[in-house]
Amino acid sequence: MILGLDVGGTQTDAVLVAGNQVVRTTKTPTGDDLLKTLKAAIDHTLDDVDARQIERMGFSTTMAINAIVQDRLEPAGMIVSAGPGMDPGWFAVGPSYHVVDGCIDHQGYEVEPLDKDGMADAVSQIRESHIRVIGVVGKFSVRNPIHEHQMTTWIGDEFLHLAMGHQVSGALNFPRRITTTYLNAALYPIQAQFSEALNHLLDKKGLSAPRYLLKPDGGTVLLSQGNQSPARMAQSGPAASVMGALALDDCKGTTLVLDIGGTTTDMAVILDGAPLMNPHGIRLGGYQTLIRSLLTHSLGLGGDSEVRIDGRGVLRVGPQRQGPPKALDGPVPTPTDAMIALDLLNVGIRKPPKQRWRISGNPSVWESKRWRKWF
Amino acid sequence: MADLGKPLGMGIKEMAEMVLTAMAESIADAVRAFLMEINAQPVYTVHEVLEDTPIDPASALIIGGPAPQISQYMARALDLPCRVPAHYGVANAVGAAVARVTTSVTLQADTERGVAVIPEANIERRITPRFSMEEAVDLGRQILEEQARHMGADQGDLATVITEQAMFHMIRQGRITGENIRLKLSVVPGLVPQWADQDDPER
Questions:
Q1: At B89, is the secondary structure helix, strand, or coil?
Q2: Is A219's CB within 8 Å of B20's CB?
Q3: Is the Cβ–Cβ distance between B51 and B73 less than 8 Å?
Q4: Of the spans A80-84, B37-41, B46-50, B56-60, which averages the highest pLDDT?
Q5: Most buried residue, A153, A334, B53, B173, by CB count within 10 Å?
Q6: Contact between residue A209 and residue A57 where contact means Cβ atoms under 8 Å apart
Q7: pTM for the whole thing?
């Protein structure tokens, strides 16, 4: 069986898949501690299942994107070299950004050797700032990575992690390459820590099957291979929706996929089974990257969004979410309350008419198993 | 709902209908903006670049917790047939479970400089002045498959496609000095064979 797990903003969904059948589904509230959430979701899902029956595991988590949007990135030093043309100072990122002389042209010929003294100076400044991770980028390193290799050799192994620009993507886009390399350096410590903790958790449960992480392009990578470029796993949620759509439906013709959640609605388009791709690279928080991704859009609107009448008497839904729906003891009315009022949904406390009654189970979660089918 | 509807002189059900209609309309507005943005530039799938092919969905697949409840409102707001698959509430976890490994590599060969570079895999190879597109595709595919296996792909689980392929002469002072080959190969997104190869899919 395959264990699949998707950490969402409000809920963590898990499934067990045997062949092409979904044999178990669970929902667990997403807490502040990602590992505790994963542990709870796994316990909840595996329950009586023998760990040896699990042959593969796939995880889609919010780990990296949360670190980016909550500004919990490790300070990363950056050393870039370019040659003539745009001033690389324009693309400065991170607390210790240095430009050194040296030039490879667009064809890959060395025009000017790398400035060894400049490099030594940059490295000592980064070292003095007590920075643990570092990124190196040459403007045409995808045509000839020799300067990035030289930088790497000169820097040596004193840093916890070193990210190289040419490994990010084959596309020529210097600003996006700098940003992506920076994120690969700055995300390294928390990604490595997360992998270690997840490995430990799974080992303890006797789950020894291959462990995969989902990427925003709809593909996966082994957890053990993820640390080298952690930015490429950031923001996999929308890709999880699209791959789920492909798994559960033929998606023939041109299909719009809408994943309507508690806080957000993700949208994507599938053309005869082939999802549309983002032509440039994914945007992660404020960072434009070269990371391959599906073309998706997230709208801050879902079942738990706030419903209110604004100052001009117009009905507004979202984008704020103030908490759970009102019927589940939340502070404000939401579309979920509207569904309850219309008898479309059978959870929570319905206030008017006068009697107050509580229906089935744990009302704080969308528990699909407990829903009555109304359609 | 009652508190919300009272000032507007509306009953609970009427108000609730209005809320779901408004929600669906907001989503539909965002969908139309998204489609306009898609259609303003060439459209890429993993297989091809589509110029002048308008993206105009014929149907919508609704997933996520409230999918069955909102589906009829979405159908009205989008003016599209909407359907809700089995396991709509955990579709993304299904996606995480059954998605297979993807990767892509870019090969740039320059016969004048005598080198082929695949930056994503940290590969540099000396090449002869006669290095051909065929050899480039062979090398690219070999490295792509190695990389995919390294990332965890199983044998026989590799649908590879060439997404970009170009070759042009390099000319200096009116003379052809070499060939430049550019190639992009990908293992495309797809479902693991355990799921995809079954005869009786649960759909």
A1: helix
A2: no
A3: no
A4: B56-60
A5: A334
A6: yes
A7: 0.90
